[in-house]
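[Q] Does anyone have a clean structure-token version of this?
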Amino acid sequence: MTTPAPVADPAGAAPGLEAPAPQPASRRPRRAKVLPYLLGLPAVLVLLAGMAYPLSWQVWNSFREYGLAQQFGQDPTFIGLQNYITLLSDSGFWTVLVRSVVFMAVTAVVTMVVGIALAILMKSIPGWSRIALQVALLLAWAMPIVAQMTVWNWLIDDRNGVLNYVLSLIPGVDMVGHNWLVEPLSFFAVASLIITWASVPFVALSVYAGLTQVSEEVVEAAQLDGAGGIQMLRRIILPILRPVLVILLLLQMIWDLRVYAQISLLQGFGARGERYDLLGTYIYGLGVGQGHFGVAAAAAMIVMIFTIALSWFYVRELLKEDQQ
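[A] Here you go.
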């Protein structure tokens, strides 16, 4: 008598063996995905609590009229987009906007070039001199803005300034009594120099930190292939540091677009007027100086849109770097 062959399980299990019981799906990956959002939630709530009211109040003010009647206690009236129309139809606003964008671009690029050069120098020089340079950069970066501007005012003073005295030592050059803050071009050149001097330490130290992470094997391989210093910098080091450099450049552009304190203090040292304004001082003059708080709020909203546009590129680069 023959024994019947075992029947295969329709689910595909081996003959004579029971299929294992289904295990419950693990919740660990889902928790891992939710955890970063939970950790970041307190910071987001704090930012919303600190910014929601003033930002909403500023947006609401940009749609209302503030004039002479409001200075005597009358409530501001809602006028819709009239403040924006008034502002965008003013040629003076566009002049200040273009001037601010050019100032931002020039200052940010110069800051990046000088910062990268100093970072490369720190990587090349011996330990004791590198530490001295890093300490000097930290001291310059930590100096308060008012102290910075006081020192620079002593340097460029038209009567007793060190800069005019040193330049006058050159044969055929007489700069004694020259005021660097009278002409708008020299005014903004001095402002760009001051802001660059204050921003270079951050860029230099950040790029130097990135240079320390460049693999020595990659550098040695490039040297064996005959790459010189310029070629190695252009084709090896800078491409490796590109994520860091892009983020630093975007941060510098955002900061230089919103600069206010240095320009305002320089105006206090020298000439004043619309020819010496950037967006920060222009908005302050509209609101506090002339009492047009509605138009000033509209201008502040436009600057915020520009800043958010630049910040979006910054956030996108951060996301790309995180994915890589």
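[Q] Thanks! Anything notable?
[A] The beta strands are 64-65, 77-78.
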